[in-house]
């Protein structure tokens, strides 16, 4: 049995716990030059004196710790060590969760593999590896983001951070701070628009399908059209959606819950509850920002409009256009 655990493959990459640092002969034989410590414990500097580079990421092994934001820097540290011709040891206290998470993030980026595949690969070196559930979700999100070099500028990361703020505010029984509310239409304006929600009284557009939240409903299984057309849940009395910029005056007041009014005619069109609310279909939505179906109309887009790139002008059907001579 090897004295230190090497990740399978052609990389001089190792994983372990604090005790691994005591195996000086094995570390020297493996030509370990870079050590990444992923833990929040007092460290004896003498343990790291033999190594060329030492990086410390101070995190606890708890589910709400943010390791995702550190993946670009830990990946770079590991790559720099390997590029320098030496070996890299990634360790935490037990060599089970935090160290495994950082090694997996590196493997995901280098080999373009999923979190599950990376975990299987790391376990070939160290069978006890098991990131906590929070770290595993972060790794899965990292994969969905396509392992970017700049995590913090990625919309998916920003949205994840916003959700964390909402959960924290909810746990404290408070509304999120105004500057931390993410108005989605000010950040992400992309994707096909399949339908539009308009105020039933004045017809003012309030939201589009791209900002509606996925919402499971047994009613969708009743669709007998056979076309598999995407629709909003029929049994639910509300459309749940992301915060949008027209809601800013209301949502930034710091109230836990309240009403949403159409910005044009001031008709009550919905409500919000940062602590969440139970939909009429029995699903609990957190946070709950909704438009009442009885107060808005769902206007479907044509196939041509759905496929048209954002910002492109509509092209009139043949024979319906006007030449300059006819004007």
Automatic annotation (TrEMBL):
The keyword Transit peptide does not apply. This is protein-tyrosine-phosphatase. The active site is at residue 92. Its EC number is 3.1.3.48. Keywords: Hydrolase, Protein phosphatase. It holds the Pfam family DSPc. Residues 69-126 form the Tyrosine specific protein phosphatases domain. SUPFAM superfamilies: (Phosphotyrosine protein) phosphatases II. It comes from Melanomma pulvis-pyrius CBS 109.77. InterPro entries: Dual-sp_phosphatase_cat-dom, DUSP12, Prot-tyrosine_phosphatase-like, Tyr_Pase_AS, Tyr_Pase_dom, TYR_PHOSPHATASE_DUAL_dom. GO terms for molecular function: protein tyrosine phosphatase activity; protein tyrosine/serine/threonine phosphatase activity. GO terms for cellular component: nucleus. Residues 213-235, 307-327 are annotated as: Disordered. Belongs to the protein-tyrosine phosphatase family. Non-receptor class dual specificity subfamily. Residues 5-148 form the Tyrosine-protein phosphatase domain.
């Amino acid at each position: 049995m090897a004295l230190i655990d090497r990740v399978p493959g052609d990389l001089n990459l190792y994983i372990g716990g604090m005790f691994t640092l005591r195996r000086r002969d094995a570390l020297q034989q493996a030509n370990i030059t870079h050590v990444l410590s992923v833990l929040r414990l007092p460290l004896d500097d003498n343990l790291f004196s033999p190594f060329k580079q030492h990086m410390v990421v101070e995190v606890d092994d708890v589910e709400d710790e943010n390791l995702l934001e550190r993946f670009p820097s830990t990946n770079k540290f590991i790559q720099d060590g390997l590029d320098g011709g030496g070996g890299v040891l990634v360790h935490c206290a037990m060599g089970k969760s935090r160290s495994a998470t950082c090694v997996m993030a590196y493997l995901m980026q280098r080999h373009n593999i999923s979190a599950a595949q990376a975990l299987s690969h790391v376990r070939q070196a160290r069978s006890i590896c098991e990131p906590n559930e929070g770290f595993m979700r972060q790794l899965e999100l990292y994969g969905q983001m396509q392992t970017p070099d700049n995590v913090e500028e990625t919309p998916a990361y920003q949205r994840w951070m916003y959700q964390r703020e909402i959960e924290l505010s909810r746990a404290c029984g408070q509304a999120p701070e105004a500057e931390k509310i993410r108005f989605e239409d000010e950040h992400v304006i992309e994707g096909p628009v399949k339908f539009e929600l308009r105020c039933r009284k004045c017809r003012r557009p309030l939201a589009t399908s791209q900002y509606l939240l996925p919402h499971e409903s047994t009613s969708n299984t009743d669709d007998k059209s056979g076309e598999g057309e995407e629709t909003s849940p029929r049994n639910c009395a509300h459309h749940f959606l992301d915060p949008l910029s027209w809601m800013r005056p209301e949502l930034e007041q710091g109230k836990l819950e309240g009403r949403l009014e159409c910005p044009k005619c001031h008709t009550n069109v919905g409500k919000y509850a940062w602590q969440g609310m139970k939909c009429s279909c029995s699903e609990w939505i957190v946070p709950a920002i909704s438009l009442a179906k009885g107060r808005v109309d769902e206007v479907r887009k044509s196939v041509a409009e759905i496929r048209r790139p954002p910002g492109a002008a509509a092209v009139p059907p043949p024979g319906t256009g006007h030449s300059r001579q006819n004007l």
